[in-house]
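Input/output pair, single chain:
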Amino acid sequence: MRTVSPQRVRRVSEPGARAFSRFRFRSLRSRLLVAGGVVAALAVALGVYLAVPGGQPAAARYGGLPSWLPTPTVPVGRVLQASAAHPALGIEGDSVLVRLTYGQVLATAVGPQVPQQGKFPIPATTPCTFIVTFARTSGTVPVNAGAFTIIDEQGHLHAPRVTVPGGSSSGLPAGQTVTLTLSTTLPIGAGQLRWAPAGGKPIVTWDFDVEID
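Output:
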């Protein structure tokens, strides 16, 4: 029988041992990577769970606003209060309860409406139309064309043409709704529509934007 020396046994076994060691190292590394991925996934899931108020699953609150967004402070459909002592500043679409010495009225302004949008090149000015509606009138509330003024973005003062249904009127009829149409030509940009029913300083001011793009 052939005898194998110890040196030859070591030489033959060493490559196999090294291969086995590399296999064990790769296997251990793979297990560590898998374990790390599982831990990371659990951490993300836990973070999402804790971020949802009440610990509800994220899917149960799909479409809800994130808790970190600021809470709106301006109520929808608000009604402002205005008087000579406390003028009101709103935006187009806001309703303002105007209290005068001998009466009160709910005033709402919308606009401006422009004849066409999407013009190119953008013109410097455009015809604009505003609609002012008066409702819930009680007592005596004067109305005249000179009470309405408009200031454009460049600080220029405009006196709009005011159309009253049935012609000019010296006052709003109590308990009825009256709609006025205000029209003028304005430059593109921001502006303010102002109403001073008693003359002097405006009691109500509505901010607006002229846009045609």
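Confidence is low (pLDDT under 50) at residues 55-61. The first strand starts at residue 79 and ends at 83.
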